[in-house]
């Protein structure tokens, strides 16, 4: 049992880390105004969605089943807005499909899922499969734990990879295509919310009608 | 006869034809409060966040005296007879002098009025000016009453916030005293375009009146009276205020078919600088279209809206025909109101 204070930050001389606000150097009386200053009625879109695109939803469906559904790459055929025609490539676990946001645009997906943490990460890329740089990070949480009610909470975050602004694989783009996936970055927050709403609608319909969340065609 | 014909339901407009205000005495500087600050750090904080000045009434100043001063310019502009013939008198007083009765009767007596409708209203809090406009308009639209006088008096800064224990608190330098009045007439000269008033019972009771001791305020004994929130509620109330004032303002904008960013002038209550910033940000208005009197007067509670309207009007910054939107929330968020007026009181 520890009876003395932990030697927190003892490797760094006091006061040299800029911007550190801890109760030792800024008590509640001093910190409350700092926090109130940070609270706003509205926040600029860029401040919320500039480098990250977080989307989340409560879904009235069992978390384990929802995780298993999402962990199957083919679920994207159902709840995404534009990914269609999934076929597995010769490389196991790597799927090819079309992103119908762009004409003749192939998208490659590898799903990395962890059943213990119920995380489902889709590693994707347009046009080529050697560098899957578009990463969709998803996590299913048991709503019982966080909301004290049955169901699931789905957290979905996307990070603004520099390739969204600059396609380094111009050579593999289909000829004549004028759009690039990163052109849609400003719409990702709304677009992903729309897809999250799709996921919620599908999963809640199946759960409410006694259907398995993962349909037979995916089995 | 087609009773669904909208033409049959056209109601006569009610106008806010004039505003006036009164600020008591010489401004009190912030150094008055910093001398009592509990620490050097707090003194600096007070200097940074508090208004530069505020007006304080003396402990013997009466509500009707403030009201008389505020109404005097209306008498000058509209004639003593028009004001003494008022049909409706509605008063809101932050700190009633007599816990049993309001100021309405005495204000009427002092000004030789004999109104048919006299109301002392309490629940509008910092949004009382909008609340009283709403009430006055409702009475005018349902009776043959033609004129109304609404009186918002903030009188707790000097008497309450300079008490020996209270003046040491960080919030003590923020309130200021003042009185603002509005003159409403059933005509089309400066029509109220729409009003939204909402009560949120779920937030009632979060603002407390305490004596700093066990005694009730009507009991004898120790302690100094003060209105406050518990410290843990501060952030909740702040978040509510951030939301409520734009919410009712947007509702009025929607109903009158004007984008919030096209509003000519926004006038809100003015509890602190952060709210002022957050509210015009939320309505997508530049700060210059959201005038306030915070730095000169502090938080004027219910009087904030009419005092700022009068200040802007006297400075010639409110143009006739422009859309003026008022919005405010009360107490810890249990009431909020917004009203839009096609301005017509420019002088």
What does this structure look like?
The complex is a heterodimer of chains A (219) and B (347). By secondary structure, chain A is of the alpha+beta class. Chain A is built from six helices and seven strands. Chain A has a seven-stranded antiparallel beta sheet with strand order 1-7-6-5-4-3-2. Chain A is globular, with a radius of gyration of 22 Å. The termini of chain A are far apart. By secondary structure, chain B is an alpha/beta fold. Chain B contains eleven helices and 13 strands. A five-stranded mixed beta sheet of chain B has the order 1-7-6-4-5, with helices on both faces. A four-stranded mixed beta sheet of chain B has the order 8-13-12-11, with helices on both faces. At the A-B interface, α1 of A face α2, α8 and α9 of B.
Structure summary:
Chain A has 219 residues and is an alpha+beta fold.
Average pLDDT of chain A, rounded to a whole number, is: 95
Give the low-pLDDT segments of chain B. Answer: none
Individual helix count of chain B: 11
Low-confidence stretches of chain A: none
* Span between termini of chain B: 45 Å
Given the C-alpha coordinates, what overall shape of chain B results?
Answer: globular
Approximate helicity band of chain A: 25-40%
Estimated share of beta-strand residues of chain B: 15-25%
Number of helices of chain A: 6
Question: Based on helices, strands and strand pairing, what is the structural class of chain A?
Answer: alpha+beta
Distance between the termini of chain A: 51 Å
Largest interface: A-B, 11 and 18 residues
The dominant shape of chain A is globular
| Mean of pLDDT of chain B | 94
Q: Could you spell the SSE succession of chain B in H and E letters?
A: EEHHEHHEHEHEHEEEEHEHHHEE
Q: Which class do the helix and strand fractions of chain B yield?
A: alpha/beta
Query: How many DSSP-defined strands of chain A?
Result: 7
- The count of strands of chain B amounts to 13
Q: What fraction strand of chain A?
A: 15-25%
**Helical residue percent band of chain B:** 25-40%
């Amino acid at each position: 049992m520890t009876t003395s204070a932990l030697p927190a930050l003892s490797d760094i001389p006091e006061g040299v880390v800029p911007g550190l606000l801890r109760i030792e150097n800024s008590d509640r009386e001093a910190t409350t105004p700092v926090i109130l200053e940070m609270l706003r009625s509205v926040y600029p879109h860029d401040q919320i969605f500039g480098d990250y695109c977080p989307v989340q939803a409560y879904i009235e469906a069992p978390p384990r089943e929802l995780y298993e559904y999402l962990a199957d790459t083919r679920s994207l055929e159902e709840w995404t807005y534009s990914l269609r025609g999934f076929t597995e490539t010769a490389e196991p676990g790597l799927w090819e499909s079309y992103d119908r946001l762009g004409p003749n645009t192939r998208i490659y997906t590898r799903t990395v899922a962890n059943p213990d943490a119920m995380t489902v990460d889709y590693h994707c890329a347009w046009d080529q499969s050697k560098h899957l740089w578009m990463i969709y990070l998803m996590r299913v949480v048991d709503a019982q734990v966080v909301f004290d009610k049955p169901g699931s909470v789905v957290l979905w975050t996307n990070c603004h990879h520099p390739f969204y602004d600059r396609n380094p694989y111009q050579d593999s783009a289909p000829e004549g295509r004028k759009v690039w996936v990163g052109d849609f970055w400003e719409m990702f927050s709304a677009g992903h919310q729309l897809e999250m709403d799709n996921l919620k609608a599908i999963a809640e319909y199946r759960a409410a009608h006694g259907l398995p969340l993962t349909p037979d065609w995916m089995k | 006869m087609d009773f669904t014909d909208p033409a049959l339901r056209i109601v006569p407009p009610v106008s806010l034809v004039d505003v006036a205000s009164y600020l008591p005495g010489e401004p009190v500087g912030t150094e008055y409060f910093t001398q009592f600050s509990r620490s050097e750090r707090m003194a600096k904080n007070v200097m940074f966040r508090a208004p530069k000045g505020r007006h304080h009434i003396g402990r013997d100043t009466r509500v009707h005296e403030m009201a008389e001063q505020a109404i005097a310019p209306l008498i000058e502009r509209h004639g003593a007879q028009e004001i003494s013939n008022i049909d409706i008198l509605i008063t809101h007083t932050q700190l009633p002098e007599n816990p049993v009765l309001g100021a309405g009767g005495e204000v009427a007596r002092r000004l030789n009025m004999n109104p048919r409708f006299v109301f002392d209203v309490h629940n509008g809090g910092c949004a009382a000016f909008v609340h009283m406009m709403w009430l006055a308009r409702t009475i005018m639209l349902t009776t043959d009453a033609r004129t109304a006088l609404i009186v918002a008096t903030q009188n707790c800064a000097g008497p309450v916030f300079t008490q020996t224990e209270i003046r040491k608190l960080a919030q003590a330098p923020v309130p200021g005293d003042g009185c603002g009045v509005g003159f409403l007439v059933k005509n089309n000269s400066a029509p109220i375009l729409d009003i939204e008033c909402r009560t949120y019972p779920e937030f009632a009771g979060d603002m407390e009146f305490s004596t700093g001791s066990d005694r009730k305020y009507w009991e004898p004994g120790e302690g100094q009276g003060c209105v406050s929130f518990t410290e843990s509620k501060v952030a909740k109330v702040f978040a509510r205020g951030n939301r409520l004032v734009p919410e009712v303002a947007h509702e009025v904008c929607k109903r009158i078919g004007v984008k919030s960013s096209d509003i000519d002038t926004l006038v809100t209550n003015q509890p602190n600088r952060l709210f002022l910033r957050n509210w015009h940000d939320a309505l997508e208005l530049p700060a210059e279209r959201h005038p306030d009197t915070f730095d000169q007067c502090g938080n004027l509670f219910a009087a904030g809206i009419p005092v700022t309207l009068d200040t802007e009007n006297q400075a010639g910054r409110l143009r006739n025909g422009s859309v003026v939107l008022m919005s405010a929330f009360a107490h810890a968020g249990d009431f909020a109101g917004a009203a839009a007026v096609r301005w017509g009181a420019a002088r």
